[in-house]
Amino acid sequence: MGAQRLIDIGAGSGVVGLALTQRCAGLSADLVEIDTALAALAAENAAANDVAERVNIVAADFTSTAERRASGLLGGADLVVTNPPFFASGSVRASPDVGRARAHILADTNDGGHPLRRWIVAAVALLAPGGCFVMIHRPEALPEVLEAFGRRLGSLAILPIHPRADEPAHRLLIGGIKGARGPLRLLPPLALHEASGAFTSLAEAIHRGDVLLDLGLRRGHPSDHGPESGLTFTV
Asked: Which one of 115, 120, 174, 233 is least enclosed by Cβ atoms within 10 Å?
């Protein structure tokens, strides 16, 4: 993998960050989660999976400079992964449960800026130069995501995820390298289900952890942006 330090933003119960930490013996991880109950669950899961000594749980709003400083969340990560809330405030009906609503809807910013852009810019700022960034989001958000990336990330890779092979993509895995200038690559799509509703063989293998997805990203100097040596990670 090549990464030494991971930051998982919006980590929830820690599934993604802990899976990567468990698979990569030399990796340390900061799991960042604003919901204190979920952050506590992530800590329990780290202990249950015998990686607690390599995992730091950060219960904070990472978009707040003051909270980042107070929690000791510093930049310089080799890899940042994130699963932002998918919807803007007012675009969908919010759950009456505060935790569920926060997991699905991005709160408005105090300065009137766009919340998804704020999330992405703050996340990329935690990367070291040449570090890799990976996020998942809805296809409808792609123009906004790319605008937020700007010149911060290059050598972008997009992997469309389809419910079934004959249906439109409902999710995108989007990755890039901080400071790189390589071209964008659209990768072969991943279909999750057969017509019967069963997992495809590839999706099932990914869920078992037998197969890794490769976005063709690699940790390195920003000017060295070729895809030939991949950073692989589980979904």
From this structure: 115
Going by C-beta distance under 8 Å and a sequence separation of 6 or more, which residues neighbour residue 50?
22
**Distance (Å, whole) CA 228 – CA 233:** 16
Tokens standing for residue 192:
């999750």
pLDDT in tens, 39-71: 999 999 999 999 999 999 999 999 988 998 898
Sign for the CA dihedral angle at 22, 23, 28, 33 comes to negative
End-to-end CA distance of the chain: 14
**Other residues' Cβ atoms within 10 Å of the Cβ of residue 122:** 17
| Cα 205 from Cα 161, distance rounded (Å) | 15
Q: How many residues does the chain have?
A: 235
Give me the CATH number covering residue 213.
3.40.50.150
The rounded distance, in Å, linking the Cα atoms of 4 and 26 is: 6
CB 119 within 8 Å of CB 88: no
Reported pTM: 0.85
Q: How many domains in the chain?
A: 1
CB 178 within 8 A of CB 133: yes
Q: Which domain holds residue 226?
A: 5-233
